Amino acid sequence: MYESLVVGNSSLNLEVESGWGLLPEGISYGYTHGVCVDSNDNVYVFNTSKDAVIVFDHEGNFVDSWGEEFEGGAHGFYLHKDVDGQEYFYITDTARALMVKTTLKGEVLLEVGEPNLPDIYDEERRYIPTDVCVAPNGDIYISDGYGQYYVHHYDAKGNYIRSWGGRGSEPGKLLEPHGISINLRGSDPEIYVADRRNHRIQVFSLDGEHKRFIDKDLDLPCSFYFFGKDIYIPDLNSRVTILDEHDRLVCHLGEDQQAYKQKGWPNLPKTYFRTNRFSSPHGVCVNSHGDVYVVEWISDGRVTKLSNTR
Length: 310
Fold this sequence. Notes:
The protein is an all-beta fold. Helices cover 0% and strands 42% of the residues. It has no helices and 25 strands. The chain has strands at 2-4, 14-17, 32-37, 43-47, 53-56, 62-66, 74-81, 87-93, 98-102, 108-112, 131-134, 140-143, 150-154, 160-165, 177-183, 190-195, 200-204, 210-214, 225-227, 230-235, 239-243, 249-253, 281-286, 292-296, 303-308. The strands form six sheets. A five-stranded antiparallel sheet has the order 1-2-25-24-23, with no helix packed on it. The protein has a four-stranded antiparallel sheet with strand order 3-4-5-6, with no helix packed on it.
């Protein structure tokens, strides 16, 4: 069954695929924080339950689950094709203060913990990584979105290179750098940081030099997904925002400007939720057909598939 989804000022036609991704008995979601698709359009939902990674095929059939070690700490979830041509997950665990690289089956290949920076971190000033991304050369960037608001740069083997950021609103400073990704749409790769509590994106060079702000049409941006020339951004304040190659607004998907204002948000009564409106988008991805998957920050999870009808 399909229900039309109003997509604002865009010609993009998407429809809600109701009932997609049913869970088998004995498996349930915690907070759904991330979602990725692999090269075969399999869908991986990252959540805070004991089955932290739940795998579906593109039709929504349950395939597998793994990741018990991420229970309670599952947060950043990034799929990257490395220089060896293989796809890997790069994951941040807020509970264990770790970045973990795994295979698509969950085999751990690399762990990166708190950087040895006593001027920034101690027993009171915690390190809480929220997201991770990988540059074309394999370098790893980790955003400390819930701790001291820095970005930390490592090589592909996890060797520390540099850090930048810190609390503030001036260029180069950050207020809750919640998400991080690599923009490959221009002549040179850039780092996009979801500077969430500043309600903006901040763009850096791969060496951490501030380049510019994107501060229009955003409302608590959480993370990013680049698809074609567009960028899909889950705005925690109840919508998904799409920007074009010039970072101009294409449309807002499923906007509900009342949801985040409700008492008890994000864990609202189930009677409040509507299939064609979002409450607290936290992660988004797009498959090869242009279908969009959105996961929301809700205690027992919420996953929506928007099918591309073009």
